[in-house]
Amino acid sequence: MKRLAIIDLGTNTFNILIAETTSDNKFKILLSEKRPVKLGEGRINEGEIIPAAINRGIQAIHSYTELLRKYQVNQTRAFGTSALRTATNGNVLLELIKVETGIDVEIVSGNREAELIYLGVRQTLLLNNHKFLILDIGGGSNEFILADMDRIYWKKSYPLGIARLLVKFKPSDPITQSEVNSITGYLLQELKDLFEIMREEKVNTLVGASGSFETFVHMIAESEVVETEGQTEAISNHIPIEHFNALHQKLIKSSVADRKEMKGLEPMRIEMIVLASLFVKTLFENHPFETLYQSNFALKEGAVFEMINNEQ
Question: Which CATH number does 3-108 carry?
């Protein structure tokens, strides 16, 4: 048995997953953690990571190297996604990580990111003979994957992550109807090809794979935060669409102060959850989805699966 680690250097959060291989070519999750780093703060749309964000990033990686030693990890892979794909000074952070920790970070394309997300999400689903659309909402990009349990039919990464939208539109507190209209119009323009594909394929099931969808689940249940992304078993949760719609109405009317009092909403998501909800609502208002699921597995779990099964 080997111990494997995946570090996902996202735009909003850096995530680590440590897993142990099992005799049946599967894995058991020993640890899953995340730290807010906000690489996209301030100048993400200008392709720059500000010094404070670089500092937060390197501090997060140092904390993860301690975990790698503690858990006696045999093999580590680190993936950089949207912010590091597009930042002109992303190499500054990558070089600091290499020099100070010895970790090489692989910058993955949007398509590669989508493939890993699919390999993770697929482990949580039982949707045989059924096409579905996966959405991973990130800070820098959002990945869409049209697939079934056997293969991917279409995938695309859009630079429409929530950190980018916040910087671009700078919504009021609370967000105004005119701002909602502007953001929705922008998303519809940018996602034209997605809606065409969905109409052609007649897909009616959406599977959400990100912290935003995890938050929706907890807020709908009005529960305290228990991270499904940190759970050790592959789980998917059904979210009744009418429950999501009711939550969306609550969020769209809320101020930051209101959201600080809402159960199930982590502090790191207070700023971004409104636009994440608006993104999903835009999909529902413009395509006849019938079913919504949330998956607790995504890129990290897909990467572990791939390492074990040597699919690359």
Answer: 3.30.420.40
